[in-house]
Amino acid sequence: MHRWIQGFFLAGVVLLSISCDWTERESPEPMNPRFSPLQVGRFWVYEVEQREYFGEADFEDSHFFYRDQITEELTNAQGQPVYRVVRQRSVDRQQWDNELAYSLRMDESRLVRWMNNSQHILLIYPVQPLRQWDANLFNPTGPEIFAIERIGSHAMGERVFPSAVLVRHMEDDDFITFRDNRYEVYAENVGLVESYSEVFTYCSRSACLGQQIIQAGRFIHLKLSTHGIF
């Protein structure tokens, strides 16, 4: 190959590489991404409906409220901001009791929540339809695939969020032994507005096999009531 042709070819490869790299990186999300604003003082109040199953026809319903508030900003060993969130629980929105604490952080383009000694990647930016990732990447357990199912407006009763993303955690039901249906919704400039989870095991004895009689499990549904900054 002639040297000038070889040089032209290499220049084209470099240019193509730069062009592809630019395509991947155009319109980068800021470190405080639009669907997960992180700031000390931010709070979210959720109305919660819950049903816990302890056996066949044995369950307990409860209705209460969660208030999640970012109380402080710390720095981890990698120099990343880590936001401590305190979750409180109330039945009347007057008296609040501490429930637990967890943390949120941006790890490069990933929103990570550390709760109950496990980390989950909740979102990856930029947000794109059908994008998938291993939410369990930072845990020693097996992979758990989350996927962006829908981007657009999201209605919750009479309330509509014009720009939101629905992240599907799981949607599986064999109608014989188990049901696992979980998702979360994040709204632009708001954060988490809805969390839905129903994880059941069905009675698998021969007398009730295939009848979808719930043996054990829990249903819990969080819906945003109000939010703001203290």
UniProtKB/TrEMBL annotation:
<protein>
    <recommendedName>
        <fullName>Lipoprotein</fullName>
    </recommendedName>
</protein>
